[in-house]
Amino acid sequence: MKSTSISSTDFRTFSNLPSNRTPLSPNRCVANTLLSLPERVGSSSSSKAGSKTNVRYTISARYSDKEFSSVRSNEYTTSPAKVLRKLLESPGIHQGPACFDALSAKLVERAGFDFCFTTGFGISAARLGLPDAGLISYGEMVAQGQEITQAVSIPVIGDGDNGYGNAMNVKRTVKGYIRAGFGGIILEDQVSPKACGHTRGRKVVSREEAIMRIKAAVDARKESGSDIVIVARTDARQAVSFEEAIWRARAFADAGADVLFIDALASKEEMKAFCDVYPLVPKLANMLEGGGKTPIFTPIELEELGYKLVAYPLSLLGVSIGAMQDALSAIKGGRIPSPGSMPSFEELKEILGFNTYYEEEKRYATTSSQLPSPKGDFSSSSNEYGVPPGIQADREQRNQIPENPVEVLIPEVYGKFSGEGTKGNFSAAWSRKLRVKITGKDGFEKLDIRIPAGFLEGITNVVPALVGVNIKSLLDEATLEEGGKQLLDFQDTMGDRIQVILE
User: Fold this and answer.
1) Assuming Cys at both sites, which of 240, 323, 345, 463 could form a disulfide with 236, CB separation 3.0 to 4.6 Å?
2) Pairing outcome for strands 4-8 and 485-491
3) What PANTHER family does UniProt report for this protein, alphabetically (predicted)?
4) pLDDT per residue over 212-241, tens digit each?
5) Cα separations (Å) of 108 from 98, 103, 151, 424?
6) Strand pairing class (309-312; 94-99)
7) Which of 265, 267, 274 lies closest to 247 in space, CA to CA?
8) What is the pLDDT of residues 267-321, one digit of tens each?
9) How far apart are CA 313 and CA 122, in angstroms?
């Protein structure tokens, strides 16, 4: 296999690579190249002070025709990655709202979008209620992602953050996202713990490590026999400089990334310059709603700049939070949300698939069948299971033995028996009812219930003020009086009057 070597010391030299190269898609794998691990020329000890150490990059073919055929033969023709690749090859720009759970993903699909994203910001918020600051783990992200991909039929691009470690962790992450059903994965070059995009404190790893992450992702894809779309993201614009971000975008493309993404570009001019880097390699725009560092443009304007995909990371999460806050304010004020602010119950059932479920359930409906009675005829003529005659005789004999009657004691019959088997005041009192009344200090009645005196368990759950009161002892000492006897009458710490009356 032929290879070519070039030397590069900075962005200006590397930017001279041809910009009309074919995009890095497996459909054009023979013409595409892979940027291998940089090999330093010369040693620092032999370099003169102030001189730069050259870095040599070896460019080699990404797949041979035979290898590519093997990869494709192991993939389902309708895989999410294949659908996503066809979308990237189709005309126009494609919008993808970000979802954070299965329900939000279903809503994206119902709205007619061709694909959607997941974001660490949204999943950290929805799953943990925590900020996107490197707190959520690979396991939590891939588990949530699997629930999302299983809920929809459109391809989903999953946020793989920084791969959750070094290049070996990146390989595991990519393979896990493939198994979870993602059509694409976004990988960034931030250090650990990472920071959320458009926020302070972002730092990136070295050029070499960033390139190795993408190379590891490509290798993981190949080893899995998958065609998952690799979206390479750099945060170098905010962490270092615009020039460094452009350098890394080019290097990521040569390492095998399918889509390029520079986060937090600060102007229309920067966005245009980014799209001019390898124009045939698709670019992703991130339209951070609510005030990010990147200016907001319409899809048509973004397409004119050269973008292929556009993400809306906060729309669904943001409006959901706002709607829930409004609903909670209404409920706290003694109202329910207005009909226009939420779907009807029938609409909710339709969105969640109740009607589809009911229709499918009919396919598996069964007719009810009568089970043989245990006292029926088990003779060989009527019993298809052929119960042996000896067992049949034993059953008939047992059916003829009268059972001893068992009397279940309930409060109404407690009066029949005392501890010595005779009637007494204790048992008689326990067969009666307790009336519990609570009257507020404003004179309004809050509670008036009657319960059997024999069932005192749980009364403190209803009236916490009775905790510590020995009602059983009061019942033991109670004498039978016509019209009832008041056992308790006191005020609790809230000023409510508590009355317990034996009726």
Assistant:
1) 240
2) unpaired
3) PHOSPHOENOLPYRUVATE CARBOXYLASE (PTHR42905), PHOSPHOENOLPYRUVATE CARBOXYLASE FAMILY PROTEIN (PTHR42905:SF2)
4) 999 999 999 999 999 999 999 999 999 999
5) 8, 9, 11, 72
6) parallel
7) 274
8) 999 999 999 999 999 999 999 998 788 999 999 999 999 999 999 999 999 999 9
9) 8
